[in-house]
Specification:
Elements lengths: L2 E19 L2 E15 L4 E6 L12 H18 L8 H5 L6 H18 L4 H5 L5 E3 L1 E4 L4 H14 L3 E5 L6 H10 L5 E4 L9 H6 L8 E2 L8 H9 L4 E3 L6 H10 L4 E4 L7 H14 L3 E3 L6 H10 L23 E2 L8 E3 L9 E2 L1 H7 E8 L1
Parallel strand pairs: 5-6, 6-7, 7-8, 8-9, 9-10, 10-11
Antiparallel strand pairs: 1-2, 1-15, 2-3, 4-13, 12-14
Helix pairs in contact: 1-3, 9-10
The protein binds 2-succinylbenzoate and magnesium ion (MG).
Magnesium ion (MG) binds next to loops.
Length: about 375
Amino acid sequence: MKIRSIELHVMEMPLKDPFLTHLGAVTVREGIIIKITNSDGISGYGEGVAFSTPWYTEETVKTCLHMLTDFLIPLLQKNPIDHPAQASNLFSSLRRNNMAKAALETALWDLYAKSQAQPLSRTLGGTRSAVAAGVVVATDSTTKAIRQIDQYLIEGYQRIKVKISPKLDYAFLAEIRRSYPDLPIMADANSAYSLKDIERIKALDDFNLLMIEQPLGYDDILEHALLQKEIKTPICLDESINSYDDARKAIEFGSCKVINIKVGKIGGLYEAKRIHDYCFEKGIPVWCGGMIEFGISRAHNISLASLPGFSIPGDISSSNRFWEDDIITPEVTVQNGFVTVPSGPGIGYQINEKRLQEVSKWKETIVF
Ligand code: OSB
Ligand code: MG
């Protein structure tokens, strides 16, 4: 891969509505955009999914920029690679910082797929031509939640995920379940509980949830295994899964029955595929998690979710779920409950350069 330059952007966009969890509200989303151009003038794109503050993982936009400009990009300059699957091993000499790594790694995959004139989904081994769409409701009001779900069902979403916490669980879910007796619903607790709350969590078995996502500690594997023995609802791990090894340990210990794979959080597409392949072999269903992402990251998620093990609808929603105007054309849309996997080269969406310039607030170009 003959790289000529890497362009880094920091951009910012307001969300249409605040995204509420027990950890706080996201109202404005900062993000990093990476454009890698090769000697033939072909460009691949990646997106860094760290937030402005370390509320969800320890990384931030600033720590990612530091890792990228001071370590990851210099490492790639000194050690040219032939294939994006080599990046993950190269980056492993730097501890963690998986969001920074994924931003660069996913751009290398897009570039490689484009240089082969191939859709990224095919490069990754994807088999689906469309992926099932799911959406997240993140509000603390039951009335608002029901109004949003009504709208999302009109738009065709196949699965609804709601954010819960000890302040917003039994009565909230009871009301939603009463309104939609047969709807595939899952609940994401983002580590709002501890083992002391076991009776509270057990009670949620009443609602026939598809799964409960990350009820306990964000870095826990052990206590989730103890909890899973006590509840019927399958546990899905999100925050606890930051690598292939995390996934292997969680499955071996019985800490979860489902895994949420987030490309942007686990270091990129190579690691995502390794987790997928392992889970597929073990019969553990996986789904593709979302991070309130812009179009580039959404596109990477769609290509990944075309792999055969992604058997549950993920956080795969349309661009207009969060944004007035996304940075890709066409925008991601949901039709009859599915998002079409693009057939064009690479991620299969064009970058809307005009929109990117509008929302970009910092830019640097590194020439190789
Ligand atoms: O826990 O899954 C999560 C968004 C930001 C950070 C963490 C999480 C989320 C979501 C996904 O719930 C929302 C989406 O992008 O669809
Ligand atoms: Mg989650």
